[in-house]
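ENCODED BACKBONE
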Amino acid sequence: MKDKIILILIIASMVSAVVYTQSVSIPETLSMTVSVYDQHVFYNDNFENQGPAFLTKGMVKSDLSKTLKFPELVTMDVNLAGKKGTNYMGTMYNPQLFKYFFSENVEADNNTQNSGKNFPLKINLTLTYNKDNAAYEFSSDQFFPINNKGFNDKTTWNVPSNYKKSSSAADWWSMSSSPGYLANNYNYCIKLNSKFTYQAKGEIFKFKGDDDVWVFINNKLAVDLGGLHLAERQDIDLKTLSLTKGTTYDLDFFYCERRATASSMQISTNIEIFCVNDYCGVCNGDGTTCCPAGFCDDKNACTIDKCPKLGTVGDGKFTKNDCVFTNVTCEKAPDQCTSSFCDPSSGCKTAPIVCDSGSADKCFEVNGNCNVDTGCQYKYKCTDNGRCDLGCDGGTCKIKDEVYCGNEFGNDPCYTYKCDNEIGCIKAPKCPQEGIPDCSIHVCNANATNEVDRCEIQSIQTDCNCCKNQVIDGCQLPGCGPLNGECVPKNKTIDDGNLCTIDTCENGTIKNTPKVCGGCSQCDSKTGECVINPPVCDDGNICTKDQCTLVKNLNGSANGICTNDFIQCGLNDTDKCNIWSCDPEKGGCQSTKVICEEKSLCQVGTCKPSTGQCEYAPRVCSNGGAFCLISECDERLGCITYNRQCPSDDSRCQAGICVNGTSDEPEGRCRSVDYDPLPFVCQTAAVVSTAVVAGVTVAGAIALGIFLYGGKKGYDYWQDNKSKGLTGASSNPLYKESDNAGQNPFYNDNNL
């Protein structure tokens, strides 16, 4: 009886090994768009090399570069210390060209031998789910995915003019002259960069094939079948790799067919590989298969033409309209007399700045040669108007006229007004004392309504009689004193009412001498003081600070000294990440931010305002707060986002599903949900133990279990197929999705 129980449990476990992974969620196929690089012996003589063929391990480094994401040779030498090294044994006679096995090199010259030129393509690699071993499989003994494509497409490819076929090849299109190998393209390499979440359910990866095969898991070499060789096999049990359940890892697959003898590939794995497709639709692609170098070139040398960033265009949706164009920023000119600009036909250029009419509207004219420190030198052309200058109005010099000066002096009707270039606004009496008869004075009537009546000559004969026979100073007028007939002369009026003149009278001559205000100073008619006159110092350069500084003289006059110091921009800016400069052509002070070049796509540099130095930190990628999305930074691709793959509590009987956060459960979580229908092994307590108690045979126990669990339909299916062995049990309709979406009447999902 004990032996029967053991046998029943063994059979039950054998059934479970076939059916426990069945789930309505497992797709029938696993299809991925992979990158293929067509090669040719003319461009890379590591292909079709007729040297020795050996399985050669240790050709590539054990760590996969997170940035390159393709293998690297351990050494660039073919022979080491006079001995035949791994490259020689692996028929890698030109190691420098290995980097083009799995990376694009379409820009190389068509007619240059051993340039490493390749032809990138993309194909769908589809693995089919095998229910018998619960694994995805691919098997082909004649694996030629790019026949008549790439370099072997006779309708589009032109054979290089200097190509000379080798003795082993029939022509450019055939890898070998042997009849059996004429039709196939044997020279290519395949790259698949994918991901998987470790479920800890006995994941394995099995491969068999020729030639080079390298598989990296978590960026560590796991399958090492390098060199030209017949079909070789290597299996990996992931439980030996120290992986953590529920953690997502990279799985990178590299395969090359390098010689026209055979091409076979077999893959079997129960690793649930998934992809983050780029906008070309390529699994973990970098966008180069549909946007190769030069694809976005708009023939404008003044734009930087780039393919869009990953994630900005939908899966497989890329078109040329998605190309990104940004304006070229040319380097700053070396000095202020040189301009930097971009020519659409040839790119960035420099040229001397022509100092001509750039400031004509501000009444400036060129003044000598350009100064490399301050730029063009201009002279204010309104200085000819001296103290009468009122500035520039649209290129025309405005001056102080009699109306302006009259307003400045209060418009006294007894004076006339004008502007003198040396003095500025001046006024003169309308009724002067010169040229009138002796013993008379000229009197102004401020209230006259007619200018003819403004001046009146009045007699001072009485005063003249008092001073008769007396000598009177020429700067005085005769006058009578308080005593009868006493002569008391009166001073002539010499003040012209202008504070900017020094009024004197010598030998009867009245002088109104302008005050000396030199340089950029001028006399203020309201105060009589020398004040600065900034327009005189203006050099027409927006990047200079134009100042007039007064220097007092001992005689009370002042000289104004012009200074035109170059403006120091950003002096009060505490943010040291701002780079300040002054550009006359762009309007003065300009600031640009310190640009911190990225060390990598996942190391972001930011400028620290307090120091102006770049600091680097890991790039933070956002999943938008969705628990069921994982965002991470890939050193090759940048930020990527993919669905969280949840492991189950019982991988035999349950599938892991992801539930996003809600208002009740904001954090989100992974759940384990029973398969529907539940596999036989998951019902042992309810079925097998009953059979044992009843003392039925092993076959009877299984039959009873199937009948109790699946009803008559399941039992009839088992009866019809029991002679085929246990492997056929995976096709039981109990373990397939119901055609009418009905639920197994014996199944109850306690998790829903």
Observations:
- Residues 1-24, 685-752 have pLDDT under 50 and may be disordered.
- Residues 406 and 417 are 6 Å apart (CA to CA).
- DSSP finds six helices and 42 strands in the chain.
